[in-house]
Each structure stands twice: as C-alpha cells, then as structure tokens.
Amino acid sequence: MTVKSDPQQLFKEIMGSYPTGVTVLTTLDEHNKPVGLTVNSFASVSIDPLMVLWCIDKKAGSCEVFKKADKFSVNILAGNQQEVCWTFASKSEQDRFSKQPWVLSENNLPLIKDVFASLECRKVQQIDAGDHYILVGEVIDLDKNDQEPMLYFRRKVGSVPQDWE
Ligand SMILES: Cc1cc2nc3c(=O)[nH]c(=O)nc-3n(C[C@H](O)[C@H](O)[C@H](O)COP(=O)(O)O)c2cc1C
User: Fold this and answer.
1) Which of 2, 42, 148, 160 could form a disulfide with 54 if both were Cys (CB 3.0 to 4.6 A apart)?
2) How far is CA 116 from the centre of its chain?
3) Farthest-apart Cα atoms in the chain, separation
4) pLDDT > 90? residue 154
5) Which residues form the Flavin reductase like domain (predicted)?
6) Residue of 51, 72, 42 whose CA lies nearest to 138
7) What are the C-alpha distances in Å from 99 to residues 1, 56, 88, 107, 119?
8) Measuring from atom 13 of ligand 1, which residue has the nearest CA?
9) Measured in Å, how far apart are the chain's first and last C-alpha atoms?
C-alpha cells in the first residue's frame, strides 16, 4: 500500500484514476453573457422526478454566477470534443464560447452543439460541502444526439474504446 504521508495528494491520484464522463456546465450571468466550465463531478440522482447533481469549486471564477443562477445546463461531451473539454477547463481562456458552436435554448440556457447529450435543469438545492458547493437540479428538458460520450481517465480524454465488453 502507498504510505499516507499526503492524504490530499493520494486522494487526487485515486479520484483522477476513477474513470468518468466529461460535461461542460453552462448558464447565463446577470448580463446574459454565457458562462461555463468543464466538470466531471456530474452524477445522476433521481428518476422520479429526474434529478442530477454536480460540484463547483468555491474558487472557480464562475462560482458566484452559478450560485445566483436558477437554471443550468449539463452538456455531456462527445468522444471527439477534446478541444471543448480543455477550452472550458483553461483559466487563461477568456472567451470560451467563441471556440465552438452553441445556441441559446427555449429555456434561455446556452447549449453546446454536437455533444453526446444535454440536460437543462432548474436548480433545486445548493449544499455547502467543504471547498465545493453541490448543486442539485431537476431536469426540465433533455436531448440526445447520435454520438458516443467522452471518457476521462488520468488527465486524458477520449472516446469509449472499441473493444469494450
Ligand atoms: C476533466 C475535468 C473535470 C473537472 N471537474 C470539475 C468539477 O467537477 N468541478 C469544478 O469546480 N471544476 C472542475 N474542473 C476544473 C474546471 O474546469 C476549471 O477550474 C475551470 O477553469 C474553472 O473555470 P472558472 O474558474 O472560469 O469557473 C475540471 C477540469 C477538468 C479538466
């Protein structure tokens, strides 16, 4: 077993090796400007009603916007959208939405195009959890394209392997 001299580092290593999908969470700020960030803490919560959750770092630049927002959209990336993943995770990228096509939905939420699926949500709960907030949403609209989803594993992203069993 690994010597637990630095539990936080070990925790990061463990969680970074836990494979997940990749989403980009989006909403509009108070000036109707789209904001978004790459997130892999997304999870399904409930079927009846349809509910999901995700976690945002209290230090994220968009944290205050998502705290104030009453809605958000979960854009589940397709396997070939690596550039979208890194653009929305980059601190230095100021104009993330100019890099790929997106539309404003009927619910007034930014939706990234060509994703695997999108879930538009009404925020129903916001839970203070350590250095993050857990945001819980009820799904108000959902859509799926004919694409395979992206996988994240050890700081790399890509498509589902062909020899999957
Ligand atoms: C694969 C991946 C998953 C991520 N998951 C999360 C997450 O669940 N929550 C979070 O707050 N940041 C997450 N991040 C980090 C944010 O995307 C990154 O800090 C982003 O620049 C924050 O943008 P902002 O400061 O403009 O809000 C993730 C990054 C990557 C590459």
Assistant:
1) 42
2) 13
3) 53
4) yes
5) 15-159
6) 51
7) 44, 23, 10, 23, 21
8) 39
9) 29
Q: What is the pLDDT of residues 58-92, one digit of tens each?
A: 999 999 999 999 999 999 999 999 999 999 999 88
Verify whether ligand 1 is closer than 6 Å to residue 29 (CB atom).
Answer: no
Q: Are the C-beta atoms of 93 and 87 separated by less than 8 Å?
A: yes
> Superfamily for 20-153?
Electron Transport, Fmn-binding Protein; Chain A (2.30.110.10)
User: What are the structure tokens assigned to 92, written together?
Assistant: 């230095």
Pocket test for ligand 1, best of 18, 38, 86 (most atoms within 8 A of CB): 38
Q: Residue 111: which of 36, 44, 61, 41 has the closest Cα? A: 36
Residue with tokens 């904001």: 35
Give me ligand 1 centre to Cα 73, in Å: 15
Tokens of 98: 């100019």
What confidence tens digit (pLDDT) does each residue in 108-138 have? 999 999 999 999 999 999 999 999 999 999 9
**Ligand 1 atom at minimal distance to the Cα of residue 39:** 5
